[in-house]
Amino acid sequence: MSEAVTVKTRKFKRNPLLSRRQMVIDIVHPGRANVAKSELQEVIGQMHKADPKLVIVFGCRTKFGGGKSTGFCLIYDNEESCLKFEPKYRLVRNGMFEKAEKSRKAIKEAKNKGKKIRGTGRSIAKHKAKRAAQAD
C-alpha cells in the first residue's frame, strides 16, 4: 500500500441528463498487483472535489505485464441521482443499497411461473411472480 498510485483521466464527458461526469481512468501502479476500488474512489474524489461515496469505479482491467490498469468512472452530482440511475448491483457493491436475499427455490419458482404465460399478459404475470417471490 506504500507504493505511489497515479490516476489519469481521459474521454471526460459531462452528462447533465444523468447528472454525472463520466470518464475512462488510467491507473499507473508500479510494484503493485492492482489497486483497490475504495482507494481509487478516494483519489478520484480528491482530484474532482467530489464525495468519494458518489464516485463509482468499475470495469478495471490490469494490462498484461502489470503496473498499468484501465477502468471506467462515474461521478454523480448528488446521492439522489446516483440511486436513481445507477444499477442496483453496483449500488450493492458500493454499500449504498442492501441486497434482498432470496432462496434459490423461490427464484426458480418465479421463473417457471413466468414461463407458463404467453402473449401480451406475460410481462404483467412475470412482474406478479417476481413480487410473490420477494414477499416470501
TrEMBL record:
<protein>
    <recommendedName>
        <fullName>40S ribosomal protein S24</fullName>
    </recommendedName>
</protein>
<dbReference type="GO" id="GO:1990904">
    <property type="term" value="C:ribonucleoprotein complex"/>
</dbReference>
<keyword id="KW-0687">Ribonucleoprotein</keyword>
<feature type="region of interest" description="Disordered">
    <location>
        <begin position="103"/>
        <end position="136"/>
    </location>
</feature>
<dbReference type="GO" id="GO:0005840">
    <property type="term" value="C:ribosome"/>
</dbReference>
<dbReference type="Pfam" id="PF01282">
    <property type="entry name" value="Ribosomal_S24e"/>
</dbReference>
<dbReference type="GO" id="GO:0003735">
    <property type="term" value="F:structural constituent of ribosome"/>
</dbReference>
<feature type="compositionally biased region" description="Basic and acidic residues">
    <location>
        <begin position="103"/>
        <end position="112"/>
    </location>
</feature>
<feature type="compositionally biased region" description="Basic residues">
    <location>
        <begin position="113"/>
        <end position="136"/>
    </location>
</feature>
<keyword id="KW-0689">Ribosomal protein</keyword>
<dbReference type="InterPro" id="IPR012678">
    <property type="entry name" value="Ribosomal_uL23/eL15/eS24_sf"/>
</dbReference>
<dbReference type="InterPro" id="IPR001976">
    <property type="entry name" value="Ribosomal_eS24"/>
</dbReference>
<dbReference type="InterPro" id="IPR053709">
    <property type="entry name" value="eRP_eS24_sf"/>
</dbReference>
<dbReference type="GO" id="GO:0006412">
    <property type="term" value="P:translation"/>
</dbReference>
